[in-house]
Amino acid sequence: MKKRAWIVFFDESGVSLLPQVRRTYAPRGRTPTLRHRLNWKRASMAAALGYHAADAKRGPRLCFHLKPGSYDTATLIEVLEQVGAFYAGEPVVLVWDGLSAHWSRDMRAWVAGQDWLTLERLPAYAPELNPVELLWSAIGADGAASLGEQGPQLTDGPGNGGAVHSEPAGPRHG
To answer: What does the alpha-carbon distance between residue 90 and residue 63 come to, in Å, rounded to a whole number?
Structure first.
């Protein structure tokens, strides 16, 4: 059976909003100082990277979601509702890991009512199979701490976070 669906890889990651300390150069006798507010704030990010299974010309799509604190089943369902709206009811095969919130009773009940969504589980200890892990590596050292003043606004802001969606622009010319 051939299914004309989006294959969407999904993952979450937590980040610290404290800046990272790095080695640097400075004029002799002028030690550089790093100033920050010293409150240990954390945020979580979720990303969904989609490829169309039958039509490569549609290009990849990236959605990500930011929120203070960590994800649980209820907030993951909210994120998946936004993913569903982004894909406008087109069939989606969502591939994600074995996090307990992904396979909870509430999540399974919610997914059962979504005709556009099919879930597939990645094998345990296989992050190399999820391309979203490469996104986290790319953000890695620079992460949310490099957002400067935006970081505290992210964690102190009202609501459950924000979603950002991206579709490929036209061809890039160098």
So the answer is: 15
Q: Where are the domains of the chain?
A: 6-15+39-166
Query: What's the pTM value of the predicted model, to 2 decimals?
Result: 0.71
CA angle 114, 120, 126 (to 5 degrees): 150
Displacement of CA 6 from its chain's centroid (Å): 17
Question: Between 73-86 and 105-112, two packed helices, what is the crossing angle to 10 degrees?
Answer: 20
Cα-trace Rg, the chain: 19
Query: According to the model, what pLDDT value does residue 36 have?
Result: 65
pLDDT band at 135 (very low <50, low <70, confident <90, very high): confident
User: Residue written as tokens 């999904």?
Assistant: 10
Rounded Cα distance between 133 and 39, Å, is 27
Residue 58's nearest CA partner among 171, 173, 168, 155 is 168
Separation of CA 143 from chain center: 12
* CATH (residue range 6-15+39-166): 3.30.420
How far lies 77's CA from each of 70, 107, 111, 159, in Å? Answer: 13, 7, 9, 15
Q: Which residue has the tokens 């606004």?
A: 153
